[in-house]
Recover the amino acids of this structure.
């Protein structure tokens, strides 16, 4: 289990920026909670929800950093950069030069923004986050780091600070968009727009972390969101929203230290509220089939497999450095995958892709060490699909493609069709809630692969312990595990001709 740390100081400045954004959005009537959009929903209402989500993502990144889910924070931060890079490109009618690199595209796009709001090398930040998510050494400022479940304290602080600072640039773009919409709608509260457009360094970072932040560490699983602790958090979130709503337009905005942490706390409280509503909807849809004990057992299995994988990485790093790095990255990605899955966001699939890539890399090193070494030495790093193919799981290529589509937010992304594929790959894709269970199903299948590889690695030195783990945690025999993997490979291979179709953006243009 990842260890909790401290909120990076720069994140308090982000908390103040989020609070100011909330003040503006509240005056425009932006919803706080998720709303289902229909043909009758106005584009302004949809945009207000997007802007609220833009603030929410920053808080979600900080929560992940505070409680040790570094891989999740990196996944969120990279998609955050992509999402608001696309906003800049769309707003300025800027098109990517065919054949240009990601770095050049990012550099060209962010050049449209004032330099005081882009005080980072965005292409370098994006590249480092990508390397980190692929389980490779990443140059984050003055250190080269790699993903693991339990990084050393100094390394953890460095990674956290880097990610928090990288996330500020897209947060600034969200603030710019809120200001523009506010001006269009005649929102003119005193000092509001100057605070929305000022550099984040203008906010205070000397904010003592409240001692009660430690109670916010639990992911929104069923037991937590139905507990008295979660009800207390609900009240805290309501208090913050009342504070934001009662500010008068003719008063100067007086930011106090509590604005920095309450703006972040509200998001953590609201995630519990949203999860509670989601569990209620699931109970209605599934009726008697809904059983919290099933989720409880699943999460315990996820935790056990994650811990074993990380321990194996630590144990083998002196003899098999690359294989150990892959196992440790897989463990970090697996933990973050189920934590984000509980928050019901597509970012969980970025982590799922990280799991399957790193597990395939570790498996290739175990079964085909010479080939793995050649792949490691290539000038251009192998893609996730190449590692999966080298591991003997090439039949999963269409599944990996769908995860890769969901891992990015770009003009060419095909999120809609990828969700359809994940839905139809389930054993029973025709039940009413199949679209809602698709991500969870993908997570379980990749968990099956990481468990399979972890047990095989453990069996090299401790065969009896490996069998005990399989029997008690996975609760399968070796033959049953092999059959389950074979069945999954065959099922995905049957969908190999799946047509992802045009990008989501192209579909919208055609409508």
């Amino acid at each position: 289990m990842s260890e909790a740390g401290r909120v990076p100081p720069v994140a308090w400045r982000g908390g103040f920026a989020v609070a100011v954004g909330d003040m503006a959005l509240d005056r425009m009537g932006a919803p706080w909670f998720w709303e289902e959009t229909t043909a009758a929903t106005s584009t302004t209402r949809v945009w207000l929800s997007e802007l609220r989500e833009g603030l929410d993502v920053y808080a979600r990144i900080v929560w992940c950093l505070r409680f040790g889910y570094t891989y999740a924070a990196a996944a969120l931060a990279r998609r955050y950069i992509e999402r608001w890079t696309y906003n800049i490109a769309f707003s300025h009618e800027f098109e990517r030069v065919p054949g240009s690199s990601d770095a050049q595209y990012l550099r060209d796009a962010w050049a449209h923004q004032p330099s005081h709001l882009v005080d980072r090398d965005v292409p370098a930040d994006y590249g480092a986050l990508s390397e980190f998510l692929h389980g490779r050494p990443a140059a984050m400022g003055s250190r080269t780091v790699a993903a693991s479940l339990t990084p050393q304290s100094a390394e953890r602080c460095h990674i956290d600070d880097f990610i928090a600072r990288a996330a500020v640039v897209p947060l600034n773009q969200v603030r710019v968009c809120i200001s523009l919409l506010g001006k269009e709608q005649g929102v003119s509260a005193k000092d509001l727009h100057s605070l929305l457009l000022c550099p984040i360094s203008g906010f205070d970072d000397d904010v003592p972390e409240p001692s009660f932040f430690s109670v916010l560490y639990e992911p929104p699983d069923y037991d937590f969101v139905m507990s008295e602790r979660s009800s207390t958090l609900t009240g805290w979130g309501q208090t913050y929203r009342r504070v934001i709503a009662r500010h008068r337009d003719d008063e100067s905005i007086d930011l106090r230290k509590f604005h920095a942490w309450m703006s972040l706390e509200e998001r953590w409280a609201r995630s519990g509220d949203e999860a509670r509503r989601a569990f209620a909807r699931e109970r209605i849809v599934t009726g008697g089939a809904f059983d919290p004990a099933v989720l409880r057992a699943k999460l315990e299995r996820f935790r056990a497999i994650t811990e074993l994988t990380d321990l194996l990485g630590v144990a083998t790093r002196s003899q098999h450095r690359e294989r150990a790095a892959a196992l440790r990255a897989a463990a970090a990605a697996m933990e973050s995958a189920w934590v984000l899955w509980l928050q019901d966001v597509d970012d969980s699939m970025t982590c799922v892709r990280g799991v399957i890539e790193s597990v395939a890399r570790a498996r290739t090193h175990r079964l085909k060490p010479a080939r793995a070494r050649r792949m490691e030495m290539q000038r251009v790093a192998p893609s996730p699909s190449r590692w999966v193919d080298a591991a003997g799981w090439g039949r999963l290529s269409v599944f990996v493609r769908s995860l890769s589509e969901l891992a990015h937010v770009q003009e060419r992304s095909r999120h809609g069709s990828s969700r359809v594929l994940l839905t139809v790959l389930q054993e029973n894709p025709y039940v009413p809630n199949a679209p809602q269970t698709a991500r969870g199903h993908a997570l379980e299948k990749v968990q099956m692969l990481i468990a399979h590889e972890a047990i095989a690695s453990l069996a090299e030195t401790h065969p009896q312990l490996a069998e005990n783990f399989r029997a008690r945690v996975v609760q399968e025999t070796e033959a049953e595990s092999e059959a389950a993997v074979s069945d999954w490979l065959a099922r995905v291979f049957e969908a190999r001709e799946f047509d992802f179709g045009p990008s989501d953006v192209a579909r919208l243009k055609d409508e």
Remarks:
- The chain is about 65% helix and 0% strand.
- Strands lie at 138-140, 143-145.
- The first strand starts at residue 138 and ends at 140.
